[in-house]
Design a protein that fits this description.
heterodimer, A: alpha+beta, Sulfite Oxidase, Chain A, domain 2, seven-stranded mixed sheet, five-stranded mixed sheet, 20% strand, globular, B: mainly alpha, 10 helices, 82% helix, binds protoporphyrin IX containing FE
């Protein structure tokens, strides 16, 4: 059971934590001194080259403009190596090492996203156009997996709410549904029906509009690696990891609660909400504690993964044992 | 020197290979991002593999007629216990670090843990009575006691089946292997064999 070294990442691309932190500090300084604007302007060209041949090189490339966020945690980061080699991304296989091992064939560029449903501006948008109007932000979030382990990951992304508002959802839009790309030729895990493909997820509109929800296009200041959900994925840090759907190709505004993949797979174990909740155990294992990757001792799991101040009000009056 | 190079000794060392791989990977930091989980899964896998390997000895002997195989069965069974101990201690020490409250809750509430513990507890009397002396002392009862391995392996497969999230291929495969091994033990195999023997004898 030798763990293979990730082939997709060159050692030169891995940022040691200390350097990353220095760089972050530098970026924060840059942002606060107002140089940010120029850097932001240079971003789209950097990440979203239209030339197909250059797309493969983009994973791991630096993202140059990142604004800091008050929502970030100051906890020690999980090393880049762990964040990019220990993944649940069943489209590439069910072993934690499968995503880094088998995502080399996946082509995250060119990419477009279909916007549908209850909104004034539906359409198919090129990823470049999709992202260009927004400023990228640095968000250091805790990630809590339903399997009782956790990480701290510096994402780079855009607030989901800002993005959704551009498409002018109507008053009938009560939920947002997301769909992952379906490409069995590039995603070997999709050849087996371990889950129902394509992967689908959803949020209630107010959850999607919460400032914590982001669409991520990078981590550790670099373009999102394939195994982490390239080129664009959802991050909802107060919910179990599987809610944060990867490699998104479709976003639909709906009136009814949309189906979600893990709920379809095991309705008694995974609910629509899937909020991190130490009081509500998974029917087969406890959720009271978690192991932070890199730690020996487990730690107590926090309500809403420690984001209760920002999100608890969304669920006021709801029985979270029933709406798990 | 020659005495050292027996099949048994060779097998003894082979059975330690997974253990050495584990130790080597642990020492060189090659257990991945979640080493504790890796140890738990690796030792769990090998416990089940050794239980299944032990169960292949009798059918294999029957089919091949290689009676000497029986001499290795006990060692293989004890290796199953060895890996079960590593698996159990990886849970007790690495995973829970003697958090008895949490462990107690796990055993009561988590059926896959309940089943795992039951399987492990049942292995203990088998390991204890595996000496020649005990074999003699228990006489007929020894065989009865040691047929617990069928139950233990079944519990092991259920334990595995119950803990996976969605990908049941591996536990199902283990279950199919177990069922096949049990079918091979049914008396009809002997009947077929003696029938074939008779037919062959008639023809010649
Ligand atoms: C004869 C006894 C046992 C056998 C054959 C056995 C076998 C296994 C197997 C095959 C796995 C899955 C490995 C994988 O997914 O690759 C496993 C996992 C596990 N076992 Fe056991 N086991 C036994 C006893 C126990 C005991 C006594 C405990 C705890 C008290 C235990 C706790 C666990 C845990 C916590 C996992 C990992 C679950 C996870 O990470 O999802 N097992 N075991």
């Amino acid at each position: 059971m030798l763990t293979r070294k990730p082939s997709a990442i060159k050692p030169s691309e891995i940022t040691p934590e200390s350097i990353y932190r220095q760089r972050r500090k530098f970026m924060q300084d840059v942002v606060s001194t107002g140089v940010a604007g120029a850097l932001v302007a240079s971003f789209p060209g950097l990440i979203l080259a239209k030339d197909k041949d250059s797309t493969a090189k983009l994973a791991g490339e630096n993202l140059s403009a990142i604004g800091k966020s008050p929502y970030s945690t100051g906890e020690p980061l999980t090393p880049f190596d762990d964040v990019t080699t220990y993944n649940n991304f069943y489209e590439f296989g069910t072993d934690k090492g499968d995503p880094v091992r088998y995502s080399g064939q996946f082509k995250p560029r060119p990419w477009s996203i279909a916007i549908e449903g209850e909104c004034a501006r539906p359409g198919v948008y090129d990823l470049e156009d999709f992202i260009a109007p927004h400023q990228l932000e640095d968000r250091i979030y805790r990630l809590r997996c339903v399997e009782a382990w956790s990480m701290v990951i510096p994402w780079v992304g855009i607030p989901l709410g800002d993005m959704l508002k551009r498409f002018e959802p109507t008053s009938r839009a009560r939920y947002v549904a997301f769909t992952t790309v379906y490409r069995p030729d590039e995603m070997p895990g999709q050849k087996r029906s371990v889950l129902q493909w394509p992967y689908v997820e959803g949020l209630r509109m107010d959850e999607a509009m919460n400032p914590l929800s982001i669409l991520s296009v990078g981590l550790y200041g670099k373009v999102l690696p394939n195994q982490n959900g390239a080129p664009i994925r959802l991050i909802v840090p107060w919910k179990y990891g599987y809610k944060s759907i990867k490699s998104i190709v479709k976003i639909v505004f709906t009136e009814k609660e949309p189906p979600t993949t893990w709920n379809i797979s095991a309705p008694g174990e995974y609910g629509f909400y899937s909020n991190v909740n130490p009081e509500v155990n998974h029917p087969r294992w406890s959720q009271r504690k978690e192991r932070r990757i890199g730690d020996f001792f487990k730690r107590e799991t926090l309500m809403f993964n420690g984001y209760a101040d920002q999100v608890a009000s969304l669920y006021a009056g709801m029985d979270l044992h029933k709406h798990f | 020197m020659r005495a050292l190079l027996t099949v048994k000794n060779f097998l003894f060392v082979c059975c330690l290979v997974p253990f050495f791989i584990l130790v080597f990977n642990a020492a060189t930091g090659n257990l991945g991002a979640n080493p504790i989980e890796k140890v738990r899964l690796f030792t769990g896998d090998w416990t089940l593999y050794f239980l299944l390997i032990t169960l292949t000895i009798t059918p294999l002997r029957k089919i091949s007629g290689w009676n000497e195989l029986i001499r290795y069965r006990r060692m293989l069974g004890l290796y199953a216990f060895f890996y079960a101990c590593l698996h159990f201690f990886s849970y007790l020490i690495l995973d829970q670090f003697f958090d008895w409250e949490e462990i107690g809750r796990d055993i009561i509430k988590r059926p896959y843990i309940t089943i795992g513990v039951a399987a492990f507890v049942l292995l203990i009397p088998m390991a204890v009575t595996s000496t020649n002396k005990m074999m003699k002392r228990l006489g007929k009862n020894w065989k009865k006691l040691h047929s617990l391995i069928y139950l233990i392996t079944t519990l092991g497969v259920l334990h595995f089946l119950w803990l996976v999230k969605a990908d049941i291929r591996e536990p199902v495969l283990m279950g199919i292997i177990l069922i096949s091994l049990l079918i091979l033990r049914l008396p009809w195999l002997n009947n077929i064999k003696s029938y074939l023997k008779n037919r062959l004898a008639e023809q010649s």
